[in-house]
Amino acid sequence: MGIILWLVIGAVVGALAGLIMRESYGILGNIVVGIVGAFIGGLIFSHGSINNGPLTVNTFAVSLIGAVLLLAVANLFRRGTLR
Q: Which member of 16, 38, 48, 72 lies 3.0 to 4.6 Å from 63 by CB, making a disulfide possible if both were Cys?
């Protein structure tokens, strides 16, 4: 059940980050952006303990912030601007 939850939450977080950053990567891209963003957010805010707690508003927000940061860095390297 854990992997299915990761995929669903990853898709939601990736889609929201895409809306915030005005990017569209499709469903698989959103899942990847959401999962990698959750990992990045966990490293930054939780000191690497992203998978140790339950899904709460705080962990969702950390995942969303990480995904937005991931898209911002990707835009910076791809286009030269943060948008």
A: 38
What is the spatial distance between Cα 45 and Cα 21, in angstroms, rounded to a whole number? 21
- Report how far apart the first and last C-alpha atoms of the chain are (Å, whole number): 37
**C-alpha torsion angle, residues 65, 41, 14, 51 (rounded to 10):** -140
CA–centroid distance for 29 within its chain: 11
Domain boundaries, the chain: 2-79
Per-residue model confidence as pLDDT tens digits over 24-63: 788 888 888 888 888 888 888 866 555 566 778 888 888 8
> How wide is the angle at C-alpha 51 spanned by C-alphas 32 and 54, nearest 5°?
110
